[in-house]
Amino acid sequence: MKIDKYISEETIDQVIVSLEGEDAVENALLDIESNAPGVLAFLFGSDSELLSDVEKELLTFVSAALWKSAGESDTIDLDADEISVLEEKNWEKFENGGTFRDRLDVFYQSFPQEDLLSMVEDLLTEDGEAENQISREGRDHIFIKAKTFLDILIS
Asked: Which of 66, 69, 97, 116 is the most exposed place for a label (fewest CB within 10 A)?
């Protein structure tokens, strides 16, 4: 899947509202499983066991929102090694210290889908109740998973 147009905040907001419907998130995950099984394995692999139930739910929602925002479903055929390279590059950028928001600045530089990246940041930092239930490590993990998924969607 190649996102070939800019995804606007309006589109993202519509997707988020649509995911509030019954079975919408589950259906998005089934679509990912059908069209990008390697990506689904990456998103919810063994390292996801480190996440709390609330953090897993947030990762699930973020993943569904990114997938649905991308639009039409095409097959994504990346192997685990290719995905690992993308993830490692993101961790290297992320680990440059500072606050969570400071560490995100580097990701916005020249990134073609800024509103999608902002959506991920907002879901991780502005959801009051959920934010209090998300550990720093969980937040970091979810952000890197989501950013890597975005890299896959735009490549």
From this structure: 97
Q: How far apart are CA 84 and CA 132, in angstroms?
A: 30
Regarding pTM above 0.90, the answer is: yes
Residue 21 burial (CB count, 10 A): 9
Q: Is residue 68 part of a domain?
A: yes
Q: What share of the chain is helix, strand, coil (3-state, %, to 5)?
A: 70, 0, 30
Q: What is the pLDDT of residues 21-71, one digit of tens each?
A: 889 999 999 999 999 999 999 999 999 999 999 999 999 999 999 999 998
> Is 131 within a domain?
yes
Q: Has residue 63 been placed in a domain?
A: yes
Q: Which percentage of the chain shows pLDDT scores above 70?
A: 94
The Cα 51–Cα 57 span in angstroms is: 9
Number of domain units in the chain: 1
- Domain housing 23: 9-154
Closest CA to 124 of 111, 137, 113, 112: 137
Task: With both helix axes pointing from N to C terminus, report the angle between 136-154 and 114-125 in degrees, rounded to the nearest 10.
Answer: 160
Measured distance CA(12)–CA(7) in Å, rounded: 7
